[in-house]
Amino acid sequence: MHPNTLILRYGEIFLKKGNRHLFERQLLDNIKQYLAQNKIAYKSIIHVGSRIVINDCADTSVRNVFGLTSVSPALRIRDCKTLEPAKEHVLALAKEAGLPQKTFRITCYRHNKDYYMKSQEIAAMLGEHVINNIGGKVNLKQPEVDINIEIIGNDAYLFVEHVPAYGGLPVGSSGKVVSLISGGIDSPVASWLMMRRGCNLIFVHFSSYPQTSRQSEEKVKELVQLLTRFQFRSTLYIVPLLDIQKKMAMNVDNAYLVILYRRAMLRIAEVIMRKEGALALCTGDNLGQVASQTLPNMVAIESAITTPVLRPLLTYDKMEIVKLAKEIGTYDISAQPHEDCCSLFVPQMPETRAKMEYLLKLEEKLKELGIEDDIKIAIERAMIMAVEQG
Length: 390
Fold this sequence. Notes:
The protein is of the alpha/beta class and 390 residues long. Helices cover 37% and strands 21% of the residues. It has 2 domains: 5-164, 2-Layer Sandwich (VC0802-like), CATH 3.30.2130; 176-388, Rossmann fold, CATH 3.40.50.620. Helix 2 (84-96) packs across helix 3 (119-133), helix 4 (186-196) packs across helix 9 and helix 7 (257-276) packs across helix 12 (371-380). The model has no long low-confidence stretch (mean pLDDT 93).
């Protein structure tokens, strides 16, 4: 069988009530945009119930569009006012799938409820046709081969394969978020998870060049380009942090350095967020993973701003994060060695339970030394890049 059609399914969106049409419209727009950007040819798109059918197309990479739960390459048989034209195609598909050596069933779904046969009648008739012409044993509960036929209008669609997609909500349906991204494993995965919930991301990376190499910047560019295939286009800010870090390292208690770095980062990201019209920040924080991510320290860091900080990896363990990074393709890039800005000037014994009164005193001292001007300068000197899908 040579598939000439894609049948796309979505799940969570179908459960929406009064505003479901808004999510469906965004999903359809995203599918069309994905096909256009990847130069994937097709003839037409049909939306029926919880199915989207792309005619004259067999490229299953469209599974990368968030909101879809699965994709099936199918054979479209036109104008099946009776099922006679479908019978020989069903036999060919059954042979390709391994019958008669494997157990099978026929699964039918009619989108056209006025069709001349009911779903169970279609399944029984085609199953009998397979047994009489090829052989094989029917197993309705756990078949080795599930031959599907869907009736849309007067057309029949035959398929076996269900290629899993990522589910979630279509990008653009949940608003904009600014994601703080490093060259490590966690923050790209956190970004991906936010996109899967329908968020459109603006990326912000902090660089300590020339105290560190450009390696982290290059890694982040590569990571953002990879992630952009899930949201079509991205904006990346690379913000110079070195002058701020030097001033902090020379003038305050080093045990609080990473906490102070991160508070400054959030303040900078919040300015960018407002500029971009975003609603929240996102980080790759994971509870208890490092000293700055203890619960007291996360509270102390987040108190620097009034903006919500979203942490999709908060309760994941490291192996879960690594597994997901490998699945989405960011792991090999993230695993390459690089110098991270937060590892600069860090003491051997960083504070794990920040005391707010003491922290605010340190920041007051930094204000007297002009740290707020340094933050403004860092924002002004940020390099802004437009990233297209790679």
